[in-house]
Amino acid sequence: MKTEDGRAEDERVNWLSSIPFFLMHFVPLLALVTGVTWGSVVLCIALYVVRMFFITAGYHRYFAHRSYKLGRGMQFVMALGGTLAAQKGVLWWAGHHRDHHLYADQPEDIHSPRKGFWWSHVGWFLSDKYKSTPTDRITDFSIYPELRWLDKYCLVPPALLAILILAIGGWSALFIGFFLSTILLYHGVFTINSLSHVFGRRRFATTDTSRNNWFLALITLGEGWHNNHHHYRSSANQGFYWWEYDVSFYVLKILSVVGLVRGIRKPPVEVLVKNRIEKGVFDFGMFEARFAQGMRALEAAKARGGVYYEKKLRKLERLVARAKASAGEMSRHSQIVQEMRRHLHVKQVA
């Protein structure tokens, strides 16, 4: 059943269950009463960076994309480190992320910015629709009982971390060191969902609107090279060139030297030269997005009328006419594109 805003009932924010998430944003303000120490500021930065690594290198590049290999013990450490970020369980996170890549910027995409900033940034996971773990998407890791336990009791590790910080560092360490860093970590990671398909540059033609953004790469230890990632998602490095800083990958390389990480995947040479927009490859993803925007503008012009809008209408109709052949081709091949997405998804997580 659709609501007045066009969303299904289970796609609306569940305000009751979301109360803890919103209340967390006010907790650091309590430091105005307790005071802020330099130690708590350093702890805030350290917890942000360390837990960001476990999310980006662990939850994302390992569990969602299997871009390198780990022993079972180290695999558990990666899962536990990501769980400390309080972004739900490892199987939940990685399973839903695989769906994002399977349907990127399509109606089935779980957090496409085409549904609005609010939805892509926080709305999707605050709704009831995606509360459960998509076990059918993460069968390769759900066979491990320790990962299932972490996924089911995902709030236990961050709660214990908060208690430990309070016991050792006091209230300032809890409010600033733990809570503020957790909130910053939330929104740092969420910008990849909400902004990296909107702001930045495209190097590769993909079937989505992913962008490379240097600032998002800075605050997420390398995740901002998102167009690179969507072009070849099974790569452990998202910065494909030396000037594209990718701190998470640098740490993985160090861990590989000491034998904790192995089988690191990088994009083959042919991948780096394939589908380069600068070489004249047709950018299907942006065409599809802009065509949809043009159609919405055309409908708005028809609804409002008037001389100005009649001119705009005629201009848009000419643009639509020129794009008609491409649109027809796009429609005829839509099923092929979806089959390609499924094939690549299965191939790259294998």
Ordered list of secondary-structure elements with their pairings:
Elements: H1 19-24, H2 31-34, H3 38-64, H4 72-83, H5 90-102, H6 117-126, H7 145-152, H8 156-169, H9 171-194, H10 214-219, H11 226-231, H12 247-257, H13 269-273, H14 284-304, H15 307-332, H16 334-349
Helix pairs in contact: 3-4, 3-5, 3-9, 4-7, 6-9, 8-9, 14-15
Could you provide a short overview of the structure?
The chain is an all-alpha fold. It has helices at residues 19-24, 31-34, 38-64, 72-83, 90-102, 117-126, 145-152, 156-169, 171-194, 214-219, 226-231, 247-257, 269-273, 284-304, 307-332, 334-349.
Write up what this structure looks like.
The chain has 350 residues and is mainly α. It folds into two domains: 269 residues, no CATH class; 68 residues, no CATH class. It is built from 16 helices and no strands. Helix 3 crosses helix 4, helix 6 crosses helix 9 and helix 8 runs antiparallel to helix 9. The longest helix has 27 residues. The chain starts with 18 loop residues before the first helix and ends with a helix. The relative contact order is 0.11.
Rg, nearest Å: 22 Å
| Beta-strand segment tally | 0
| Contiguous helical run count | 16
Domain module tally: 2
- Most strands sheet: none
- Provide the residue-averaged pLDDT: 89
Low-confidence stretches: none
Oligomerization state of this entry? single chain
Classify the secondary structure makeup into a structural class. mainly alpha
What's the helix-strand series? HHHHHHHHHHHHHHHH
What overall form do the CA principal axes indicate?
globular
Distance between the ends: 37 Å
**Helix content class:** 55-70%
Roughly what fraction of the amino acids lie in strands?
A: under 5%
